[in-house]
UniProtKB/TrEMBL annotation, chain A:
InterPro entries: Rad18 (IPR039577), Rad18_fungi (IPR004580), Rad18_UBZ4 (IPR006642), Znf_RING (IPR001841), Znf_RING/FYVE/PHD (IPR013083), Znf_RING_CS (IPR017907). It is an enzyme of class 2 (transferase). Residues 148-163 have a biased composition (Acidic residues). GO terms for cellular component: nucleus; Rad6-Rad18 complex. Residues 117-163, 214-246, 355-379 are annotated as: Disordered. GO terms for biological process: DNA damage tolerance; DNA repair; protein monoubiquitination. This is Postreplication repair E3 ubiquitin-protein ligase RAD18.
From TrEMBL, chain B:
Belongs to the ubiquitin-conjugating enzyme family. Signal peptide: none annotated. Keywords: ATP-binding, Chromatin regulator, Cytoplasm, DNA damage, DNA repair, Nucleotide-binding, Nucleus, Sporulation, Transcription, Transcription regulation, Transferase, Ubl conjugation pathway. This is Ubiquitin-conjugating enzyme E2 2. Residues 4-150 form the UBC core domain. SMART domains: UBCc. It is an enzyme of class 2 (transferase). The active site is at C88. One of its GO terms (biological process) is sporulation resulting in formation of a cellular spore. It is found in: Cytoplasm; Nucleus. PANTHER family: UBIQUITIN-CONJUGATING ENZYME E2 (PTHR24067). Its main location: cytoplasm. GO terms for cellular component: cytoplasm; nucleus. It comes from Dacryopinax primogenitus (strain DJM 731).
């Protein structure tokens, strides 16, 4: 586990994982896993589903998988599919966005419950002399959260509740001028010497609430207002959504035509014909995947993504050549001796860990964390 | 800047170290996350039992859309392993899926030791012995098992 955290620390982004949740919160681990793309194993980014089988992926992940893969099939179930079967999964995107917001809180609460449980056990250990094995048993049970809720949480919660969490639109009485002030404004209001505050007008508020109510059932009312409120129709008044770019079969085109394709998309014309085609094809993939996201990137950002992709490919090619020249397997094996010795210990631990309890697992974990160089971050 | 491929490899590593499948282990080389070393224990109830076989996995930026190159460093006597250590395993070739991770690859290689496929031989002699002379096959495999320990012992003494 130390290894993993050492690694995660070196990544520039936070590499989250279901195993971030404590072991006895299996249901949270499962929830976390189900909201992840089976390809990149990250929380879904612009999720889409395949109409041919119903499996969901990040839009970019599945588009790249279908482009790079040998067969056009669902990576999860191998049912044949094609790009035209990719459909936006709006509910999943909303769920994941909501979960992303809640995840750190949930994680904090779960870890907090575990540490409180541990603290309570430590303090119990100090006062009475209950034999240790009994407590160990309790810790390993699945009812940790429940038991914490029942006896520990309540008294502490009442302490915490001094800080009331108010809705950001709530009004409070200013202790100085006694006027109603928005809770989010109260500090600034007092600092400024109690100027008159602009309160959200009740009339407007009412309208918003009516709109919410009418939008809620989604056209069930059938009335003029109801339809106007229902989200989908509002799109019609604004500009039509951009259309996905069509794929191109380059082999039928002349060099000039391929260059024209690049020009119309505003892409670079450097490199040879093969690079042009790859650049254009990847641009289509990036562009179309971006359309499936509710937080679409700007064209400039997409072009930077394309540049990065090309640089990585070029570097890959170079490294491949370098590897070709290094074929001394035995020499390599020798140089990696220490590493392999460690791996053998770990593999042995995993076998024994499965057959006789979890004791051995600790041994493997006590190994020194392997340091991963900053190479992880460079491109 | 971390890339999709590298982030995925870090996740694979996390999964492998928090929930290791039985009898396999692997981790990236300290100086390059794109090259991993791995060890597979020969599965019990097979001639490979107790062997500690070493492998390398080499990834490039197309992972997980393309499989890594997987090679045995230890000498193997197996119908589906070439003399160079390269494997003939469908999920590392035409049956690859980008949903696979390192844990899945290592367990698949482990089960290949368990169930060789003599119909797509990479080592003709091993395939023939496997079909026609099991006793000799087992004997030849056992010598590689002993060699796999020797590698470790000799090197550790040095």
């Amino acid at each position: 586990m130390d290894l993993a955290s050492a690694l995660a620390a070196t990544g520039s982004d936070d590499v989250s994982d279901p195993s971030d949740f404590p072991e006895n919160f299996g249901d949270l681990r499962t929830l976390d896993r189900t909201l992840r793309c089976p390809i990149c194993k990250d929380l879904f980014n612009a999720p889409v589903l395949l109409a041919t089988c119903g499996h969901s992926f990040c839009s970019l992940c599945i588009r790249e998988a279908l482009k790079e893969g040998e067969k056009k099939e669902c990576p999860a179930c191998r049912i044949p599919t094609q790009e035209s079967s990719i459909k936006k999964n709006i509910v999943l995107e909303e769920s994941v966005e909501a979960y992303k917001g809640a995840r750190s809180n949930v994680l904090f609460l779960a870890n907090d419950a575990v540490s409180r449980k541990r603290r309570r056990e430590e303090s119990a250990n100090g006062t009475d002399e209950t034999p240790r094995p009994k407590r160990m048993k309790r810790q390993s049970s699945d009812h940790v959260l429940q038991s914490v809720d029942e006896d520990d949480e309540r008294p502490e919660e009442s302490e915490d509740s001094e800080v009331e969490i108010l809705d950001s639109n709530a009004l409070v009485d200013c202790p100085i001028c006694n006027h109603k002030v928005l809770v989010t404004r109260i500090n600034a209001h007092i600092d400024a010497g109690c100027p008159e505050e602009q309160l959200p007008s009740d009339k407007g508020k009412g309208k918003v609430q009516w709109a919410k109510l009418l939008a809620g059932p989604g056209g069930k009312t059938g009335s003029k207002f109801g339809r106007r409120g229902a989200g989908g129709d509002t799109d019609r008044s604004s500009s039509p959504p951009p259309r996905p770019l069509a794929k191109v079969s380059y082999h039928t085109l002349s060099n000039k035509q391929v260059r024209m394709l690049l020009q119309t998309q505003g892409l670079a014309e450097t490199g040879d014909r093969k690079q042009w085609e790859q650049r254009h094809a990847q641009w289509i993939t990036l562009y179309n995947a971006n359309l499936d996201s509710s937080k679409a990137k700007s064209t400039d950002q997409l072009k930077r993504d394309l540049d990065k992709w090309e640089r990585l490919r070029a570097r890959d090619e170079k490294e491949k050549e370098a590897r070709m020249s290094r074929v001394d397997a035995k020499g390599y094996e020798k140089s990696q001796n220490e590493h392999f010795a460690k791996l053998i210990v770990q593999a042995r631990a995993s076998v024994q860990g499965k057959s006789n309890g979890t004791l051995v697992k600790g041994e493997a974990e006590s190994d020194k964390p392997i340091e991963i160089s900053s190479d992880v971050e460079t491109v | 800047m971390s890339t999709a491929c590298r982030r995925r490899l870090i996740r694979d590593f996390k999964r492998l170290s928090t929930d290791p499948p039985s009898g396999v282990s692997g981790s990236p080389c300290p100086d390059n996350i794109m090259v991993w070393n791995a060890v597979i224990f020969g599965p019990s109830d097979t001639p490979f039992e107790d062997g500690t076989f070493k492998l390398t996995l080499t990834f490039d930026e197309s992972y997980p859309n393309k499989p890594p190159t997987v090679k045995f460093l230890s000498r193997m006597f197996h119908p589906n392993v070439y003399a160079t250590g390269e494997l003939c395993l469908d999920i590392l070739q035409n049956r690859w899926s980008p949903t696979y991770d390192v844990a899945a690859i290592l367990t698949s290689v482990q089960s290949l030791l368990h169930d060789p496929n003599p119909n797509s031989p990479a080592n003709a002699e091993a395939a023939q012995l496997y079909r026609e002379n099991m006793k000799e096959y087992v004997r030849r495999v056992k010598t590689t098992v002993e060699e796999s320990w020797m590698d470790g012992v000799v090197e550790q003494v040095k």
